[in-house]
Amino acid sequence: MTMSEPQVWTLIGVFGAALLGGFTLVTTHFGRVVRAEVGRLEGTLSGKIEALDGRVTGQIEALDHRLTGKIEALDYRLSGQIEMLDNRLTGQIEMLDHRLTGQIDALDAKLTGRIDTLDKEVSDIANRFFGAP
Hints:
Elements: H1 5-130
């Protein structure tokens, strides 16, 4: 079978159009497949990220509760120790205050006695030299 030149060009055009149509179909199908796989992958990753976020959030909250409990226990212990130390120091200060007050009172009485004696002696000396007033 022999073909004329226009027939050959027609066949080349038909084959070219069929080949271009095939490429178009394959490219369109490939794009759809890629979009579907990317969507599936996004869904899978989103689920895993949300699960990981939930786990991390739970662990952080548990750690927060644990640390809060330990801090409160430490605060309670330190408050008790500070109160005990305050009471001890207050007692010691009061005892020292009483002791010093007693010593100051004794010293005051002793000095008052000596001043009274000195006053009497000075009066006696004045009477001797200047006569009785």
